[in-house]
Amino acid sequence: MHLLKEKKQYIFLFIWLLIAGTFMAGCGSNSEETGGSADEGDGELSGELNLFIWSEYMPDRVIKQFEEETGIKVNYNVYSSNEEMLAKISAGAAGYDISVASDYMVEIMKKQDLLEPVNKDNLSNMGNLDEQFLGQSFDPENDYSIPYMWGNVVIAVNKDTVNKEVTSYSDLWDPEFKNSLVVLDDQRVLIGIANKLQGESMNATDPEVIQKSKDILMDLLPNVKAYDSDSPKTMLVNGEAKAGIVWGAEAYLASVENPAIETVLPEEGTNIWMDNFVIPKGAPNQENAEAFIDFILQPEVSAEISKDFPYANPNIAAHELIDEEILNHPAVYSPEEFLNKSEFFTDIEDAILEYDRVWSEIKQ
After folding, report:
1. Which pLDDT score is estimated for 41?
2. Would you tell me how many other CB atoms lie within 10 Å of the CB of residue 116?
3. Parent domain of 282
4. Where does the secretion signal sit in this chain (predicted)?
5. Domain shared by 126 and 51, yes or no
6. Of 200, 341, 353, 364, which residue is least crowded by CB atoms under 10 Å?
């Protein structure tokens, strides 16, 4: 667990993205996704909160509890990647009060002046966070970001349908997995894995390495049944996929529903990440956003989130309320020796254009 202090420099990532549309298009209230808005509570705050967050990352009942306790109505939209979130916000979509950004994306948004400073005087529960998750290089004083969850990428394998032993990402290129893999729809993850298979960094910027990674991933295409970053566990549980490259929490949840699904920590190491609450520039309800962050930082609330979405939790005070099975599962809290072989994503500067090109050619 000392790895977060050992990883250096989450700096500006050069991205060329163009997206049309406005914020409120498709932005629904909680009436469909959280079971309806609650009556106004007894709290001093009121009004609305516009939440923009990863899909399958915030339980409906937690949002409803916040509404009941504060009288604040929560509206929310979801996204499937950091880049999708950045594109929407940087294109001028107004009205978001709070979002979630991974480590390197916090730095991007800071550099682009897309974030409001967080008033930490309104966060009475900051002390519940493990100090090792604070003061990271992408935001040394936590002026713009507050830790939410962290995790990694692993291999999930159905032992009942897979005949060979899987220990490495390279094993997934075996013809046994023809048309039976579900993999994350994430260019940094997939190209990063192909980089690792060459003995290079997941953040490699050498055009020759990136081109070779394209060739490696093209060779994987016959085995890929689906790209899915939202809920890859679904295809594992229902038997459509024999194995997958998935988020650690998804591997754990798949194993709960189908005990034949086992987690493999690839011998090459993997990607690790840290997600954070951020407040977009010009947020119309910043105090409500800070109230929501402080609400989430309560141990009981944070532990409740981990029940539904068991990513690794930086809220150390919540750990005594989290099921021991989750705390001890390698897909969620992987051994330190494995994490030490793994990498955070960092700035790849102009090389992002090569990653974009390669990814579009792979998926065309």
Report:
1. 38
2. 19
3. 3-150+273-327
4. none
5. yes
6. 364
Structural domain count of the chain: 2
CA distance 244 to 157: 7
> Which residues, listed in sequence order, are joined to residue 28 by a DSSP beta bridge?
76
Same domain, yes or no: 358 and 255: yes
Instruction: Please give the structure tokens belonging to residue 334.
Output: 């992987």
Report CA-CA distances (Å) from 36 to 42, 45, 57, 66, 158: 18, 19, 18, 12, 38
What residues contact residue 242 under an 8 Å CB cut-off, 6+ apart? 157, 158, 161, 162, 176, 177, 180, 181
Q: How many CA atoms lie within 13 A of 235 on its CB side?
A: 24
Same domain, 68 and 167: no
pLDDT means per 10 residues, the chain with 364 residues, are 37 31 37 34 73 94 97 94 90 86 91 95 97 93 98 97 96 98 95 97 97 98 96 96 97 96 97 96 96 98 96 97 96 95 87 93 93
Which of helix, strand or coil describes residue 206?
coil
CA angle 244, 273, 198 (to 5 degrees): 60
One domain for residues 9 and 109: yes
Integer Cα distance of 339 and 266 in angstroms: 11
Query: Rounded to two decimals, what is the model's pTM?
Result: 0.81
Q: Name the DSSP class of 51.
A: E
